[in-house]
Amino acid sequence: MKKYDYIIIGSGPAANHLLFKLARTKKTALVIEKGFWGGTCPNTGCQPKIFMEGAVRPVLNTYYLSGKGVEKPAKLDWNALIKRKKLIWAEFRREERSSIENEQVDTVFGHGVITGPHTVEAAGQEYEGENIVIPTGLRPHRLEVPGSEYAITNDEFFDLDELPAKTVVIGGGYVALELATLMQAAGSEVTVLQHSDRLLRPFDQEYVEKLTQMMTDRGIQIKLNMPVEAIAKTAAGYEVTAENGQKFAAGLVVDASGRRANVDGLGLEKLGIKFDPIKGVAVNEHLQTNVPSIFAAGDVADNGQLNLTPVAWVDSYHIYDFVENGLEEGIKYPAVATSTFTYPQIAQVGKRESEMEDGDTVRRMKLGATFASLGEGDTNAELKVIFNQAGEVVGASEISINAGDDINLFAPLIGKKDPAKFAMNNLGFAFPTLANKLDVLFR
Ligand SMILES: Cc1cc2nc3c(=O)[nH]c(=O)nc-3n(C[C@H](O)[C@H](O)[C@H](O)COP(=O)(O)OP(=O)(O)OC[C@H]3O[C@@H](n4cnc5c(N)ncnc54)[C@H](O)[C@@H]3O)c2cc1C
Ligand SMILES: NC(=O)c1ccc[n+]([C@@H]2O[C@H](COP(=O)([O-])OP(=O)(O)OC[C@H]3O[C@@H](n4cnc5c(N)ncnc54)[C@H](O)[C@@H]3O)[C@@H](O)[C@H]2O)c1
């Protein structure tokens, strides 16, 4: 039986960042993957999404600037964009597996099953590992209603050659609103059906309302409290029926009703490894499962964090430091910033206004009134920064077309006592960018 220092089941961001670290050592690893090499983020998640958003953003920009110096809104050519996407990704997919392999790292294509505290089976072979790491990620949740098989998920979305004239998106989280943004910008008539009364739970709800209004103004129908009862195939496409009897016709239905942990068929039950079928594998402060040689990392680890790529990186770095450097201190997550890649974007780091405690204060800045935002037609742009009683920055939220980038300026300011002084003395920001406006905000 071939022996390795690490057996890693899954090849997503949590796995490849552990491999980057291990490359500095002489340690050996086997990576097992049953889907696309590289995992969700580069194949069916963050990367194809941000690639497409890169074209959608300037198109929507011209929509808001139309008649204000721009003659008319630009038109997005979905078919051409997908063609270009497929070309770029075909090359990525050809090369990704071989980019992982080297003299220290072997790869196997297949479903990994843990058979013992140090053994894993894949593609009919058993392998031995000093350490086993489970970064198996999440898979799309499928609605449990008749006809749910007619809906696609993000797994198929980024390869759609044609975009129908009418689309229905089920869900109200990151994926639902990001995909709805892309499809409407490409000319589809989009309806979003959310089962509850809230969208984008991790974000400032005042900004979510602003975003909802702007999406609605562009023609996206957003229906709250609209649980779906069934999806049926019709001569023209599909018909989605809500529990209240309302019917929605569409040429495409996208199920974005959340994601579930990839824990099935991993052999966890046999070894007594604790897990939750939705949230994932139970871990301690070193990301160890209740079997000490077996770790979980990234989205599938029930680590109390949002399921984001930078969190997966932090997890894999911690496992490396714990196993290789004997780090005793438990994992400490930084304040990880997050953003929706809608139009406009909503971004967040640290506390939200709704989480303020006694003594906290909030300061707002109407970014939309600045020359830069006026020039971009981003007149609803706004920023909120939360301070604690000691004057330290404890959170920031922004709605703007650049919020996802802007929020990164606030991550290093979290916990800083005199942020204006810190920013002015330590960070030499370019002008005129949001960075320079920090000075105004902190006066
Ligand atoms: C549409 C979409 C957009 C997103 N956008 C963003 C974004 O903008 N920013 C952000 O931070 N995050 C984003 N995310 C989340 C991000 O993709 C995840 O947080 C990240 O991929 C987690 O990495 P991971 O390594 O834990 O798991 P994954 O990337 O999911 O990788 C897990 C891998 O394990 C494999 N696997 C599972 N079980 C087995 C098994 N038994 N044997 C072998 N292989 C197995 C899977 O095939 C998969 O390739 C997005 C997600 C989606 C769906
Ligand atoms: N920009 C980003 O960073 C980004 C983008 C996409 C995904 N992600 C990550 O991936 C995770 C998964 O994203 P997601 O959008 O799939 O999940 P999510 O948890 O953000 O949203 C799921 C949505 O589906 C709704 N829902 C749940 N059950 C439903 C039902 N039966 N019928 C209708 N709606 C239902 C929920 O209320 C929620 O609005 C996110 O939590 C996030 O961590 C991040």
UniProtKB/TrEMBL annotation:
InterPro entries: FAD/NAD-bd_sf (IPR036188), FAD/NAD-binding_dom (IPR023753), FAD/NAD-linked_Rdtase_dimer_sf (IPR016156), Pyr_nuc-diS_OxRdtase (IPR001100), Pyr_nucl-diS_OxRdtase_dimer (IPR004099). Its cofactor is FAD. Keywords: FAD, Flavoprotein. Residues 336-437 form the Pyridine nucleotide-disulphide oxidoreductase dimerisation domain. The keyword Amino-acid biosynthesis does not apply. Residues 4-313 form the FAD/NAD(P)-binding domain. It holds the Pfam family Pyr_redox_dim. Belongs to the class-I pyridine nucleotide-disulfide oxidoreductase family. This is Glutathione reductase. It comes from Lactobacillus nasalidis.
